[in-house]
Amino acid sequence: MKSFETNIIEKISHFEIFQTMEHLRLEKALFNAVVQNFKHRELVYRAGDRAQSFCIVVEGAIKLIRHSPKGEDRIMHFAVQGDIVGGLLMNQPDSTVYPISAKSMGPTLVVSVPKSTFKEFWQSDVYLQSKLNSLLYKRMSNIQDEKTMSSSPLKVRLASLLIKHLDQDSTTSQPLSLSLTRQEIADSLGVAVESVIRVMSEWHDDGTIRRSVEKGPEYIDVKKLIQNIEN
Amino acid sequence: MKSFETNIIEKISHFEIFQTMEHLRLEKALFNAVVQNFKHRELVYRAGDRAQSFCIVVEGAIKLIRHSPKGEDRIMHFAVQGDIVGGLLMNQPDSTVYPISAKSMGPTLVVSVPKSTFKEFWQSDVYLQSKLNSLLYKRMSNIQDEKTMSSSPLKVRLASLLIKHLDQDSTTSQPLSLSLTRQEIADSLGVAVESVIRVMSEWHDDGTIRRSVEKGPEYIDVKKLIQNIEN
DNA sequence: CGTAGCCTTGAAGGTGATCAATGTTTGTGG
DNA sequence: CCACAAACATTGATCACCTTCAAGGCTACG
Lengths: 231, 231
Known about the structure:
The first copy, chain A, is an alpha+beta fold.
């Protein structure tokens, strides 16, 4: 934890949620907030702990994980730059615990805002509340989309997940905006790793997925991908 | 559509979301609202229509349905007394359409509130916004729970759904708070009707589910149910 | 009294889970 | 810098669970 730097404020002020906010209000909204740095695979929040703060992802990414009774993990959401983690919980009673664990994916920088600041500033700020609502609405839509496809074959669901993580809606070949392991993809879809590997190996063979450099990011040929799942 | 009656206001004022609200504020919150009555299986909202109003369920129940491209339906949520349908959308831009269809389940009475009232009163009311957040949070938790169990065998997911729809958390035998057809259960779980029927037939045979009267409601023996799925 | 919605059962078949074994890469501590 | 552990990737074989298709019955309702 280190104290605030202006360049971070600067960066945050461009996030969609704060875009129309003046500097002064933004500083109030971040009162007592601290910057936190995480390496790869570090715990940001642990499921079951009291929810005393929420955070804004400034750099890197965080995966939100639910633990099933059988010890399996399910990934609920990948939070990337500009995303807010745990924001919904702040409206809940003080005794509320995080329902999920949050883990960093690669080097990650977040701004952690204490619940007290939420109560003093966010809760009474109509603009922020409505922005939080929007954010939540998007996440909800996402999960509902997934549920709608729950009985589609794995290939379709996997394709949909990949497309969702592309930067633009183009039909050209492009890399994922966030590098995911096969395990993470599997945990996100709720299937076995092996199943994911089998499908993606096939797509590697027919050129739907390519690597320009050895060990480099994987490029998705969207056009081919869509062709693929339509058969 | 008929004009407002005091006994409806009376009833609404006891819903959790309005509980601590004075009468005057409640009337403002329901400015220009209308009462709507639906019979069985009527369309309350149609997916794709402009979202110009939201509604509060006063009596009966409404199922929220997503249509998959293949013509299958997935039920996202069963809204019962006190629930709000479409409330999240009111924070979104005017061009937003309902992402779901809403259908009544049995005779249903709702209060339909126009978007204009939301903008004038709800949006600037911190208390209501935070209540909406809470509501959304609960629904989100629910869907996430389901996603967490997505790879559990059908028996487990079905049991979990049944338990969720019991009135109390007792271990005695009790009926569902909402009568569901097998088809609705299947659409909610994202499986085939036949699969649901097979499991429930089995549970009828071993006494986990019983009917006190022919055609009456089905009583769930929770203790037995839990025993059942633990094997 | 016919249609639409719902419930039921059986048989056949496929998708994805599970288990097992093995290789690769990355990070850690001696 | 090497050895070892931990995370990640891969492939094959087997099998359970659930889907799909088909056929039929029941009940409510206009």
